[in-house]
Each structure stands twice: as structure tokens, then as C-alpha cells.
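New to this. Please check this record:
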Amino acid sequence: MDYLPRMVIFSRVVELGAFSKAARELGLTSSSVSQHISALEGILGTTLLHRTTRKLSLTEAGQGFYAHCARIVALANDARDATESLHKELVGELRIASSCFMAPEYLVPALEDFIRDHPQLRISIDVSDQNVDLMDHSVDLALRVGRTPGPGDIPLALMEAVLCAAPSYLQAHPPIRRPEDMLHQHWLFFTPHGPGAAVELSLRDRAGHCTQLRVLPRITANHARSLRQLALQGHGVGRFLRSKVQADLDAGRLVEVLPDWSLDGYWAFITTRHRDAMPAKIVACIEHIKAYFQRRHPGGGAAS
């Protein structure tokens, strides 16, 4: 592995015409540079430089070897410049993951100007209601919704959640007048990881009193749109983002349950596999999405 660094040293000696000048540029001593050149000649079994007290000159072998060294150094510099360009400039590929709801509702609108302003970027969007592993799928960042952002995640906005059911379900089951009545209902829950155990619900009335409920879902789904359809069909009470079902509430297709009680909301947040020294394209995309959420959810707050 010492062979390649010695080729770089040899190239600079030839280009600068003196061991001392190459030594100063490379942060070495003149004697160290001389030793590296001698070691290189020993590896090659030939003399590369004629040394006199006044100047250096290339041997015939040295001339041919230098031409190859110069090409290798140039390629190495090109590789460095290309890597720095990817890190500092908005070029290359950007892979983003999002849920089936968040992608059309937030991600695509947020990226409208970003895509137009950066034509050298190739953007890949992975849409799924299952949280993909960012490392396994080489995803740069994901726009997600959850109860609490994790360490290192970037909170965007706290989004209101609501409990609701179809009129047909409410007519066929005991009335829901207080939180305790919820214990005897059929529940529909979104879970990206398949069927789970009981779910904790935290409800707060207008006076600030909090009630904790532990309910067992009858139906779970890892696809939010399908869960909404199940609620519209009258199969139970579901917990949804208000923005996702507001049109159904306005049209009477769904009815809010316990409207005098508020439910813990969901955080929209960005997570990324890059923690330190993020490439410029990722930083710019994150800032663009943050600005879009600030416009749509002013005063959305920050996760504690």
C-alpha cells in the first residue's frame, strides 16, 4: 500500500523539480522524500531520477513511469472532486420514503419547487404504509407520522387525531357518552407491523382531566386507506388523523365520537440515515419540507 503514496510523492518531485519543494508541499522532510523515491526505485528495480547538486532529471524509465503516475494522480483527484461535488452540490440521486397518505398530501406538494429548481437531482420516492428500513433500502430520508419522534428525528408538526365511526355502526351498538363506554366497542387500528396487543388511548376533557383506556383492536391494518374504508363500512371505531377524515365528517359518512374529549395527536417528522455531515442535497430537501409544513401548520410546535 506504500506503493501508491510513493507514486504521488514521485509525481510532485518531478513537477516541482526539487525534493525540498515537494517536501514542503507534502509536509515531509527532504530526507523522507528521498527515502521514498529510493524505495520506489528499489521496488521497480530501476533508476527513475538522475540526481545532481543542482538539479534533477528523469531517466528514460522515469519518463515513462511519470506519465503513468500523472494519470493515476489525475484520476484520484477526479474521484475526490466527484465525491465532494456529490456532498456539496445538489446532484446525484435522492431517495425518499413516505406513507400512502403523507406522499400525495404533503411530500409531493412540498417537493414541487424543489424538483423544479434542481434539475440535476434524480429523485426516487418509495410509497408504502410500512416503515422501510432506511439502511437496507438505501433511503436517504423518510417523511413519517408517529406518536413521538425518536432521537435524531426532525419534528415538523403535531397533527390532530380524532375518534370516529360510521352512523350505521353507532346505531347498532350501545351509545358512547363517556370514555368508559369505549371499552365495549369494536376497534379499528392502523399498525404498520401487523396485529398487535392492546392499545393505550389517552383522552383529555376541556377541563384538562385525563383518562387512560386500554382497548383491544378487533381489526388492524397496515394500510391507512383500507382502515378508513373499514370504518366507512361500519365495522368499528377508528383513530384517524383529522385531516384524513374531515371530508367524511363534513359529509356525515363518519361521526366524531366523544367530541368534548381530545385525543393525543400524531407527530409528522423526518428521519434520515445520515446523522453527521449530511450531503447538501439532503439538507436542502429537509429544509424545503420543513418550510412547507410551517406554511401549512403554522405554530405546529416542536416535540419535547
